[in-house]
């Protein structure tokens, strides 16, 4: 995911180049992306409102995941389409793939599968962080496609992540860590020898490897976003070489 940067020759030139890129999207692709982004903004807004209402009514975070899980699972799984969108929008398939797969993994293979950890504060942490991130991100894409992007949404899209990304990762890692004892005790998703496939798999150690994989992968995602920030907010021309 290395990147190199060239001198862009001023913001005007960059803006012209960016407009040129946007015009290449066909009418059908634009219509689909507007629909998709509006639906995703609405979905995450519904999720956010449901979380706030739950907390106001119950005065506790216990049971919150359970009450919003259907909405979360639906909209987070729907985000798999973003990997397909890489074919039409100027976005990195590698970065998007890691981002989406880690979220799907957290939702289905951790939070959904290990009921005992659903009331952990760390689950609420990543839920809140994801929700704020996605409302901002999808509304950014929608207004951008409509060529009416309010500056504060652009600013929020490329500034909030500075705090939210590490906070979300902390929530995810703490949740996986909390899941480890249950995984070890139950042996879930594990395959022990001997078996007819002659293959063994230990989900407990797999989770430990996943946790360690954040160490090389997260900085790449974070620096990718910092480069995007410089490109969009400061008009720098950035050439990504990863895909
Ligand atoms: C099997 C187990 C696997 C486990 C793996 C473990 C390892 C995990 C390591 C790290 C895990 C991280 C976990 C993440 C947690 C969180 O999310 S915490 C919450 C905070 N998160 C964020 O802030 C996310 C920030 N990151 C991103 O947004 C991602 O990098 C991104 C989603 C992949 C987007 O990046 P990118 O596409 O490069 O940038 P953009 O600037 O948004 O888009 C570039 C251009 O593409 C256009 N575009 C993209 N999508 C759309 C769309 N849906 N509709 C319309 N247009 C779109 C966008 O407008 C840009 O176009 P231009 O304006 O013309 O440039």
From TrEMBL:
<keyword id="KW-0443">Lipid metabolism</keyword>
<keyword id="KW-0256">Endoplasmic reticulum</keyword>
<dbReference type="Pfam" id="PF04387">
    <property type="entry name" value="PTPLA"/>
</dbReference>
<dbReference type="GO" id="GO:0030497">
    <property type="term" value="P:fatty acid elongation"/>
</dbReference>
<keyword id="KW-0456">Lyase</keyword>
<keyword id="KW-0276">Fatty acid metabolism</keyword>
<keyword id="KW-0275">Fatty acid biosynthesis</keyword>
<feature type="transmembrane region" description="Helical">
    <location>
        <begin position="158"/>
        <end position="183"/>
    </location>
</feature>
<keyword id="KW-0472">Membrane</keyword>
<comment type="pathway">
    <text>Lipid metabolism; fatty acid biosynthesis.</text>
</comment>
<protein>
    <recommendedName>
        <fullName>Very-long-chain (3R)-3-hydroxyacyl-CoA dehydratase</fullName>
        <ecNumber>4.2.1.134</ecNumber>
    </recommendedName>
</protein>
<keyword id="KW-0812">Transmembrane</keyword>
<dbReference type="GO" id="GO:0042761">
    <property type="term" value="P:very long-chain fatty acid biosynthetic process"/>
</dbReference>
<keyword id="KW-1133">Transmembrane helix</keyword>
<dbReference type="GO" id="GO:0005789">
    <property type="term" value="C:endoplasmic reticulum membrane"/>
</dbReference>
<dbReference type="GO" id="GO:0102158">
    <property type="term" value="F:very-long-chain (3R)-3-hydroxyacyl-CoA dehydratase activity"/>
</dbReference>
<feature type="transmembrane region" description="Helical">
    <location>
        <begin position="203"/>
        <end position="223"/>
    </location>
</feature>
<dbReference type="GO" id="GO:0030148">
    <property type="term" value="P:sphingolipid biosynthetic process"/>
</dbReference>
<feature type="transmembrane region" description="Helical">
    <location>
        <begin position="33"/>
        <end position="56"/>
    </location>
</feature>
<dbReference type="InterPro" id="IPR007482">
    <property type="entry name" value="Tyr_Pase-like_PTPLA"/>
</dbReference>
<comment type="similarity">
    <text>Belongs to the very long-chain fatty acids dehydratase HACD family.</text>
</comment>
<keyword id="KW-0444">Lipid biosynthesis</keyword>
<comment type="function">
    <text>Catalyzes the third of the four reactions of the long-chain fatty acids elongation cycle. This endoplasmic reticulum-bound enzymatic process, allows the addition of two carbons to the chain of long- and very long-chain fatty acids/VLCFAs per cycle. This enzyme catalyzes the dehydration of the 3-hydroxyacyl-CoA intermediate into trans-2,3-enoyl-CoA, within each cycle of fatty acid elongation. Thereby, it participates to the production of VLCFAs of different chain lengths that are involved in multiple biological processes as precursors of membrane lipids and lipid mediators.</text>
</comment>
């Amino acid at each position: 995911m290395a990147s190199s940067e060239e001198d862009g020759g001023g913001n005007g030139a960059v803006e012209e180049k960016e407009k040129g890129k946007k015009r290449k999207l066909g009418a059908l692709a634009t219509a689909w992306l507007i629909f998709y982004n509006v639906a995703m903004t609405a979905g995450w807004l519904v999720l956010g409102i449901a979380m706030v209402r739950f907390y106001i009514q119950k005065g506790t975070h216990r049971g919150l995941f359970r009450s919003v899980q259907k909405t979360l699972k639906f909209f987070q799984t729907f985000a798999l389409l973003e990997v397909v969108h890489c074919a039409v929008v100027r976005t990195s398939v590698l970065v998007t793939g890691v981002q989406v797969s880690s979220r799907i993994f957290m939702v289905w293979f951790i939070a959904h599968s290990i009921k005992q950890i659903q009331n952990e504060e760390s689950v609420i942490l990543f839920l809140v962080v994801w929700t704020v991130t996605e409302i901002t991100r999808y509304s950014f894409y929608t207004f951008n496609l409509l060529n009416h992007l309010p500056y504060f949404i652009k600013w929020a899209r490329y500034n909030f992540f500075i705090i939210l990304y590490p906070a979300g990762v902390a929530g995810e890692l703490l949740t996986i860590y909390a899941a480890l004892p249950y995984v070890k005790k139950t042996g879930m998703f594990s395959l022990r020898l001997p078996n007819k496939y002659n293959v063994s798999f230990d989900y407990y150690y797999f989770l430990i490897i996943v946790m360690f994989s954040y160490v090389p992968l997260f900085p790449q995602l974070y620096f990718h976003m910092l480069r995007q920030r410089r490109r969009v907010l400061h008009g720098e021309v950035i050439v990504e070489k990863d895909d």
